[in-house]
Design goal:
2 helices; about 100 residues; alpha+beta; globular; five-stranded antiparallel beta sheet
């Protein structure tokens, strides 16, 4: 049985984040073993965070700081668990500009 593609997980993560946040201004993108989380502002989406697959459907999360460096967030977990961690810790950064 072929492995489920990262693109599938990106789509699922986007659905979960939009549900948890209550708005559609979030998009996700598969990038290698990472799932990028972007906020839609104006013309260009802003990368806010990413999940990195550690293996066996386990993920870690990181926040993109103002310097462009990736700062790790605490914990590891399933896609569902890490979506909740990202929303809990980064909710102000995931809100649209007109929030």
């Amino acid at each position: 049985m072929p492995a489920i593609s990262t693109k599938h997980y990106a789509t699922e993560l986007q659905r979960q984040l939009r549900s948890l946040l209550g708005h559609e201004q979030i998009v996700t993108q598969a990038y290698g073993r990472h799932l990028l989380i972007k906020r839609l502002d104006g013309e260009e989406p802003t990368v806010v965070a990413r999940l990195t697959e550690l293996g066996r459907s386990r993920y870690s999360a990181a926040f993109r700081s103002h310097t462009g460096r990736w700062e790790p967030l605490p914990g590891t977990g399933s896609l569902d668990e890490m979506a909740e961690v990202v929303v809990t810790l980064l909710q102000p950064y995931l809100q649209p500009d007109n929030y």
